[in-house]
Design a protein that fits this description.
- The protein is built from 6 helices and 7 strands; from the N terminus they run H-H-H-E-E-H-E-E-H-E-E-H-E.
- The protein has helices spanning 4-8, 21-24, 37-66, 84-89, 110-118, 140-143, and strands at 71-72, 80-82, 96-100, 107-108, 121-126, 129-134, 152-155.
- The longest helix is centred in the N-terminal third of the chain and has 30 residues, at 37-66.
Length: 160
C-alpha cells in the first residue's frame, strides 16, 4: 500500500538539499531505494514519458485553440503589390498568383515563395483573366536573395 507521504515525494530519492536523516535508517520494503534497478528505471522513464506526453498535449491544445492564421488566395480580392524586380518579370500590382507549373496555391504561405523560385512559369489572375508569366527558374541570384524574398512587399486581402 502506498501512503500519502510516499505520493507527496520520494523520500528516498534525496539530494544535497534534502534531509539525509532518512538514509541513516534501515530501508523499508516500500521504499524506492529497496526496489530492483529495473523497477527504478521504469519509474524514472515513466516520469520523462509523462512529461513528454503532457507537453505534446499542451502544444496540441494551443494549436487547436489559436491555430494558424493564413490568407486564402481566393480571398485576395485586391491582389498583391509587387516590387520592381517582380515587375521586370511581368508581374503587375493587383495580380493574384494562383499557382505555378509545380502546384496550385490554396493559401498564402512559404510554399508560394519556394515554388516561385523553382517554377518555369507562374499563373496569375489579372483583371479576371488567367495570365501565364515565364519565370527565370533556378537562377542563382533569383533563388538566393536578389529580390525574391521581397517580391511581395504587401498583401492586400479583402477578407479581413
Amino acid at each position: 500500500m502506498v501512503t500519502l507521504e510516499d505520493t507527496a515525494k520520494y523520500r528516498e530519492m534525496i539530494d544535497e538539499s534534502m534531509d539525509t536523516e532518512q538514509m541513516k535508517r534501515e530501508p523499508q520494503p516500500r521504499e524506492f531505494r529497496t526496489k530492483p534497478a529495473w523497477q527504478r528505471l521504469i519509474i524514472m522513464i515513466g516520469g520523462v514519458f509523462v512529461n513528454f506526453v503532457l507537453a505534446l498535449f499542451i502544444y496540441s491544445m494551443i494549436m487547436f485553440h489559436w491555430g494558424e492564421s493564413y490568407v486564402r488566395m481566393a480571398d485576395m480580392s485586391l491582389g498583391m503589390k509587387f516590387n520592381t524586380e517582380a515587375k521586370k518579370l511581368g508581374f503587375k500590382d493587383h495580380d493574384i498568383i494562383t499557382g505555378t507549373n509545380i502546384r496550385e496555391f490554396k493559401d498564402f504561405n512559404v510554399d508560394v515563395y519556394r515554388d516561385l523560385a523553382d517554377a518555369d512559369y507562374a499563373e496569375v489572375l489579372r483583371n479576371g483573366k488567367k495570365v501565364r508569366i515565364s519565370m527565370p527558374g533556378r537562377s542563382e541570384p533569383f533563388r538566393y536573395g536578389k529580390g525574391y524574398a521581397t517580391v511581395y512587399t504587401s498583401v492586400h486581402s479583402g477578407c479581413c
